[in-house]
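Note to self: user wants both folds in one dump. Writing first protein now.
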Amino acid sequence: MRTNHVIHAAVAAAFLLAATTAAAPLPRSVGLEMKAGPNAAYATRHDGIRLSVPEPSEAARGESPSVAPSLTDLYVTIPSAEGGERRLRVESTGHLWDERASNRIVLSGKHAARMRSEAERLRKEHYGQLTDWNEAKRLLPRRSVFSITDIESGLTFRVQRRAGSDHADVQPLSKEDTRIMRRIYKDGWSWRRKAIVVGSEGRRLAASMNGMPHGGDGIPGNGFSGHFCVHFLNSSTHRSENPDPEHQLMVYKAAGRLREMLNGSPPLAQARYLAAAMDQNETEIVRLMTEGMTLPESAGLVAATAKFASFRAGKIAESKRDPVTELTAVVELDAVFQSRGKPSRRETVRLTCARLSPLSPWRLDDCEFIPVRSRSSRRS
């Protein structure tokens, strides 16, 4: 019988909260960074925070958990006793996590609360505001000019909205703006979605863009043949009346509210978002979605996501749900994917979702890749 990782995560969290620590070390000055992922260059910084952090040898109990931790987007840089620096991540509890050592550092209740407070404050400053398309198109009328900032690189360029009723069709304002946009896409064009912050008249709106010129032109001399699309909350593509999962995932990333979105998503939506994250090589989103799995299972899915050249999901269906408690559900999706340097494969991805109660959020509990021919399971 499969062990329920959601229950394991809850037990681990309860143990952590109940744990007592040794005498607190002396406070030291640390630096904080709010950013969308460990490799993001775009960050909002706050230096000079006084924090009591144990040295690695002083780390409290539970320092090598078997369950993937619940991590925030706040990073801490701490001067070490040897003269170097330690880079840690803040957990949802406010305690610290050393990703290299897979080691938890438990802070005092006061300092853990301070970390949670700083995370909330910096998050509001760093990200864009979640804005429905009906409001966004009013704030950004046709012919309006606004800025776009890539939430990963921090590169910013200017665009003009030219058209679009279901989303914004925009064009770079000048050749220099086109050059900056190409840098964001590594000097090429791509349909890949990017989380962005739109800046206009003092407002910062969470949005998503693709990087492929298409359709009609309108700004002569800007070096961009056509337009590209910018999406907001609940906007849709030309092909569908429904919001595109990949764009919506990036909108929530740009708002710093991915955890909130996932916590409110039923199993079918979880499967769609996981497929979208895998296709976009969004390793940090996959890590977030697999919190509560064992560390090896979570790390395996994250590593696989980094290697995908493409991941296309076909039919998605919920195949089984516990009829009595409704605390577990199984979703299967048909997937065609290709890892870099390898041939394309078609497999069924079977996802088991679980929750602690009917009012608790669904979480991914297990993921199996099943070859279509043999149907024998291969776990990531």
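First done. Writing the second protein, which came from a different request thread.
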Amino acid sequence: VNGQCTGCHGLDVYTRPDHKVQDARMLDAQVDTCGDAAGIDDASKQDVKEYLAREVYGFAG
């Protein structure tokens, strides 16, 4: 999945100061949009959401 994500954008999309994701709901929507475009299955999209929420954004889950 990481290769599919970084095939469209770099890792800086998660850490730049002006990132658009401000909460878990916004993260879910963004991962769904990107995941659908990349052909990622629902279970993998959920894994990505949980990883990003925990490790990148620090959202409680």
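Dump finished. Worth passing along: The two ends are 21 Å apart (CA to CA).
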